């Protein structure tokens, strides 16, 4: 169900992107009569000043770049150009290169008030790239600066809806929500947010001490519970052993001799039996 929704949203975003690009890309016929006269004059000037003008007309676009050409202020039909070699008119055409490689930037530490009223400092890192060079040039002045500011605002907004425990344990979910929000917001700018990661969560010093004391108390409580369980198990074992010895008098004598042997092995001592044990047992029975 979620996959279907994501697929539909991606399809809708691509349709909006294509429509926006189609609206921006206008044909050469829209420049008007005066525009065509300027274009013809530029072509004539280029031919007259050959071969010097050829160096101004030839442009090379690298593999990871795309070129947006404005002719008399209008984007040429076809949108982004490149990579490769192409010609422009030096007087009427303006060229802007756009880098399509993935760009990484750090989100500065943001002071965020969580849902349970705890102030934390959180920073992160964002990976994005220009997905549509035409929209990145025509729809926004500075796509990189806008994406950085939007990432800071989105980080504060997303973390403001979480409590401290969720921030510490659900970093992956928070990063995924941020990526989805940023990607949707920057779609109109021709930018694709590929990945968002939460780097560090810094807590106030007093809160760190309180959490450390709480963890220490929890460990001590678990240790006491384990010791109590061990005492209980030992008591049950002693009870069962006493019942077995009570059923066999000879077992008691063997246990008595084994204890004496252990004492003699640990401490160098001499043990004297005044009477045989069987005679003592007879007096005890009387």
TrEMBL record:
Localization, UniProt: Membrane
Superkingdom to which the source organism belongs: Eukaryota
Broad class of the protein's primary localization: membrane
TM regions (residue ranges): 36-58
Gene3D superfamilies on file: 6.10.250.2090, Band 7 domain
Keyword list, A-Z: Membrane, Transmembrane, Transmembrane helix
One Pfam entry name: Band_7
The Band domain, residue ranges: 56-215
Gene Ontology cellular-component terms listed: plasma membrane
PANTHER family: BAND 7 PROTEIN-RELATED (PTHR10264), STOMATIN (PTHR10264:SF115)
Entry's family note: Belongs to the band 7/mec-2 family.
Protein name in the entry: Band 7 domain-containing protein
Record organism: Megalops atlanticus (Tarpon)
